[in-house]
Specification:
Elements lengths: L3 E2 L6 E2 L9 H17 L6 E2 L2 E2 L11 H10 L3 H22 L5 H34 L10 H8 L18 H19 L3 H15 L5 H26 L4 H24 L3 H26 L8 H5 L1 H22 L8 H34 L4 H7 L9
Antiparallel strand pairs: 1-2, 3-4
Helix pairs in contact: 1-2, 1-3, 1-10, 1-12, 3-6, 3-8, 3-10, 4-12, 4-13, 6-8, 7-8, 8-10, 9-10, 12-13
């Protein structure tokens, strides 16, 4: 293979070998999932549907350690969208444009990845909420748990603007938004092989939607902005392959730290829109690029922590059902729980992770494989070669 010249350096660098798996991005999405879990720890302080009066995040247990997650954990959802955008461009862009992956294939891959655990947790939460309503006289935390919202959740439509509020397994609102992003992405790949114009238009539409008065349309808008900012990160990564390692990593690292500081300043001055633009459109994508560049030169980096990434979807979908069950049982039995205790928050994290591990290995992964083998039998080899290599399905 021919060497690649580094522009302006007079030095020739060997082409970079592609890592077998993006372990560092796995770790990042795993940490993002745990950030959401800690952000939702405040659910334990809800009295029926509202946070108790006088609630202050700074009073939460182990605040000195978990304060970034308690205060800013909700931003992890936008990080998920950025990661999804980057990984989908990384895996699917050329394959869709070249008709290697059909729309049917794409739908089966997404369905098998997301739906089995979503369906099980939806039924579980519906059962617990029904039990809570009959024994306590009201639903717990999320109030919109009627047939209409069950059907919306059943078909991943829970946050498309048809809802009256959060319902059932509330955190899955972001999964509902991602379904829209996936469809938009696939359509954009068919429209043109010139990725940059499509990405630019999608980002602009996302920013315009973020001004909507409807909360779900705002969140869908930010989802578009984040997802296609991840697409920009992918295009940048393709260009950085032609540069020296030190130059690439230095530029991206400076961009990450500057945008993080800028986002923090905007937040402190109450400039939320500018903060979101900087954080989601520059800071998160540059963080992804930093980890990618690190992975390209240390292929095994993060391999020891692969489990964190593997159980991301399980921790994300299971943490609320676990919370719901705890609140229902303790309330019904009159058991007082000290949620301000350090032991309680660590115990909660331990239970979520402890249940997520066997859920992934004995249900989520087998169900995914079963569906793909049954629904994609005509081309099993093509699918198996494409997906396991790159951490497909980042949420």
């Amino acid at each position: 293979m021919a060497d690649i010249a580094i522009p302006g350096s007079g030095v020739r660098a060997a082409p970079r070998a592609v890592p077998e798996h993006l372990y560092m991005l796995d770790v990042l999405r795993g940490l993002a999932s745990l950030a959401v879990v800690l952000w939702h720890y405040r659910h334990f302080y809800f009295t029926q549907y509202d946070v108790i009066r006088g609630f202050n995040a700074s009073s939460l247990p182990l605040y000195f350690l978990f304060w970034p997650f308690y205060e800013y954990g909700f931003h992890a959802v936008q990080l998920f969208f950025v990661l999804s955008g980057f990984v989908f461009y990384y895996i699917y862009s050329e394959r869709i444009q070249n008709r290697v992956v059909s729309f049917y294939d794409f739908c089966v891959l997404r369905f098998s990845r997301l739906y089995p655990l979503h369906f099980v947790t939806l039924v579980f939460v519906a059962t617990v909420q029904l039990g809570a309503y009959r024994t306590l006289g009201s639903f717990i935390i999320y109030r919109e748990n009627d047939l209409r919202h069950f059907l919306l959740n059943l078909f991943f439509l829970s946050y498309w603007g048809l809802q009256r509020g959060y319902s059932f397994n509330g955190p899955t609102w972001s999964v509902s938004v991602e379904i829209l992003l996936y469809l938009t992405f696939f359509a954009s790949m068919l429209l043109s092989k010139r990725n940059l114009p499509i990405i630019a238009v999608s980002i602009l539409i996302g920013l315009l939607m973020s001004y909507s008065l409807h909360s779900s349309f705002r969140d869908i808008g930010w989802g578009l902005y984040c997802f296609f900012s991840g697409g920009i990160a992918f295009l940048v990564s393709e260009q950085l392959k032609r540069q020296s390692a030190l130059f690439s990593f230095s530029i991206v690292s400076v961009l990450f730290f500057c945008s993080a500081i800028l986002s923090y300043i905007f937040t402190n001055f109450g400039l939320r829109f500018l903060s979101m633009v900087s954080l989601n459109g520059v800071c998160f994508p540059s963080l992804v690029l930093c980890l990618l560049l690190f992975q390209y030169y240390y292929h095994g980096a993060g391999r020891s922590f692969k489990l964190i990434g593997d159980i991301t979807y399980s921790t994300y979908l299971l943490h609320f059902p676990i919370q719901l069950t705890i609140v229902w049982i303790t309330t019904y039995c009159g058991i007082a729980v000290n949620y301000n205790s350090d032991i309680t928050v660590l115990g909660f994290l331990g239970v979520v992770i402890g249940i997520s591990i066997p859920t992934y290995y004995y249900f989520e992964a087998p169900a995914q494989l079963f569906l793909r083998q049954r629904l994609m039998q005509p081309r099993p080899v093509k699918v198996s070669k494409v997906l396991p290599m790159t951490g497909e399905g980042l949420r």
